[in-house]
Amino acid sequence: MAYNDQNIFAKILRGEIPCDKVYEDDYVLAFNDIAPQAPVHILVIPKGPYISIDDFGRDASAEEIQGFYAAVSKIVNEQGLASDGFRSIANTGAYGGQEVPHYHLHLLGGKKIGPMVSP
Ligand code: AMP
Question: How many Cβ atoms from other residues are within 10 Å of residue 7's Cβ?
Fold first, then answer.
């Protein structure tokens, strides 16, 4: 499957639609989810055109991968998620329930997040 640059996160990256930005550097943009599922619900996306965690792990450079996860660490500490814990989720494809085909890591915290998978 080819990357579709008309997806909503690509439009956010190009500045065509706004976001509630939490953090940005050369490798990532992080912003609050528009429909939060927890008191803190942040999405972290790479700046490169990657569809999923699978695609990102296979095709991104070592620098991009290191930059992405270093930024995740910065964000969870800056946003106060690291001390009490949080959940990170990367929904992938149809069975994973992925809605937006640009790799994104959900960071959920601010309360106990509950069961890992709903029945
Ligand atoms: P997923 O199902 O893993 O693809 O998650 C996509 C997420 O993107 C959902 O949690 C949506 O609420 C969120 N979302 C969709 N559009 C926007 C937007 N414009 N700004 C922020 N979050 C969004």
Answer: 16
